[in-house]
Write a structure and sequence with these properties.
By secondary structure, the protein is α+β, with helices and mostly antiparallel strands. Helices cover 27% and strands 41% of the residues. The chain is built from four helices and nine strands.
Length: 186
């Protein structure tokens, strides 16, 4: 089995993501993600039989066509958390309203429709275009994280989106490593 997801990668923004991560200092309990692997997840597929990959690529190609989305620019910025500021599990940078969020949402909806029709589980929450930059393992540095998220509004940068990717996540001791299996052009 392969652990798969569909993403838009933040290629070329690793230094900017790293700079935003540094705003959290050494908040206890906060584990930073690898800025080189920053991405917006359009759909988490989970454990997938490798024999399904070709069909999946065909359906993702159809999803791009269904979405009607052409290459577009995204402005990445702002901070947020899941599930809430009271209980922080994930810290993320978002996509600015009116600067790629509609296109990403259209891609998400088309990918969701095509993959659920293939038997993949439907998402149980609304889509929020974001890239995870850290995870909270324990609440030691929660107040610093809360303060930073509530008071800072960093601009991460701009990105031209020309494709979505089918990505494999390989879990290792030092964290997940991502490998692009297929790029599907817009």
């Amino acid at each position: 089995m392969q652990r798969l997801f569909v993403s838009v990668d933040l290629d070329g923004l690793a230094d900017e993501v790293r700079a935003v991560q540094q705003r959290f200092g050494d908040a206890s309990g906060l584990r930073l993600t690898d800025p080189e692997q920053a991405h917006v997840t359009l759909k988490f597929l989970g454990d997938t039989d490798p024999e399904r990959v070709d069909d999946l690529v065909t359906e993702l190609d159809a999803a791009v066509a269904d979405s009607g989305v052409e290459p577009f620019e995204v402005r990445v910025g702002g901070l947020g958390v899941f599930p809430s500021l009271d209980y922080i599990s994930v810290v993320w940078v978002g996509v600015r309203d009116g600067h790629g969020d509609r296109e990403l949402t259209a891609l998400n909806e088309a990918v969701e429709d095509r993959t659920t029709a293939m038997g993949f589980d439907a998402e149980d929450h609304d889509f929020t275009p974001h890239a995870t930059i850290a995870r909270m393992d324990h609440a030691g540095g929660k107040e610093l994280v809360q303060d930073t998220v509530e008071t800072e509004d960093p601009d991460v940068g701009r990105l031209r989106v020309e494709e979505i990717r089918l990505t494999e996540s390989v879990l290792r001791e030092d964290g997940p490593h991502y490998r692009t299996l297929e790029s599907i052009p817009l």
